[in-house]
Amino acid sequence: MRIRPETLRLYAVTDRAWAEDEAALFRQIEAAVRGGAGMVQLREKRLDHDAFLEEARRFTALCRRLGAVSIINDQVEIALEAGADGVHVGQSDLEAGRARELLGPGKIIGVSAHSPEEARRARAAGADYLGCGAAFATGTKSDARPIPRETIQAVTAAADIPVVAIGGVNRGNILELKGLGLAGVAVVSGIFGQRNPEEAARELRALAEQL
């Protein structure tokens, strides 16, 4: 399934670190979408299957109501059972081709790519978009090291599908990514770690339009 680049202009990726409970997380998600996020990824590393599935179903319904695209991080089965729009997988997760077999042609598959070679492999396996990073130093993933701007540009040139930069993107550095061929940015703390996620998303969306 192809995805419009404008949907990826601002891609919100959740993190429980800034929400005291599930209700607060869902308020943040709604605020992010109202601020301009066209796609939201639900990322949960510590919930068991049943708890994640219940949350994913609620998340999918909320995104559908708000008109945003719902993506589940890593868990293809959860994405299928919850009826989400798609899944995002990393290089160490389920291979993109296998994810496509399980999800079928109608779902969105995003793949993390850190080099032109990974980008081409992901595209050949059926990926609809790529996440490239870390664009900047980030506290969200301790093992994510920033990659050169030249590498990001090489990734965007390597595959004819949209690419978003992820990792440490915020309002102070987003325009450093201008001219690299990106469709948009994926943002975690720059939205969910802010006092007013809707206002933060709105500002980031306006800046992302300049990329």
List the keywords.
8 helices; alpha/beta; 211 residues; 8 strands
Walk me through what this model shows:
This protein is an alpha/beta fold and 211 residues long. It has eight helices and eight strands; from the N terminus they run βαβαβαβαβαβαββαα. The chain has helices at 22-35, 49-66, 76-82, 96-103, 116-125, 149-158, 189-192, 197-208, and strands at 10-13, 39-42, 69-73, 86-89, 108-112, 129-132, 163-166, 184-187. Helix 1 runs parallel beside helix 8 (197-208). The longest helix has 18 residues, at 49-66. The radius of gyration is 16 Å and the shape is globular. The two termini are 24 Å apart. The model has no long low-confidence stretch (mean pLDDT 95).
Summarize the structure.
The protein has 211 residues and is α/β, with parallel strands linked by helices. The chain has helices at 22-35, 49-66, 76-82, 96-103, 116-125, 149-158, 189-192, 197-208; strands at residues 10-13, 39-42, 69-73, 86-89, 108-112, 129-132, 163-166, 184-187.
Number of strands: 8
Give the overall pLDDT as a whole number: 95
Query: Can you summarize the main beta sheet?
Result: 8 strands, parallel, barrel
Mass-distribution shape: globular
Order of H and E elements:
EHEHEHEHEHEHEEHH
Q: How helical, in percent, are the residues?
A: 25-40%
Alpha-beta content class: alpha/beta
Q: Note the gap between the termini.
A: 24 Å
Rg (CA only)? 16 Å
Strand order of the biggest β-sheet: 1-2-3-4-5-6-7-8
Note poorly predicted spans: none
Please give the count of helices: 8
Strand content: 15-25%
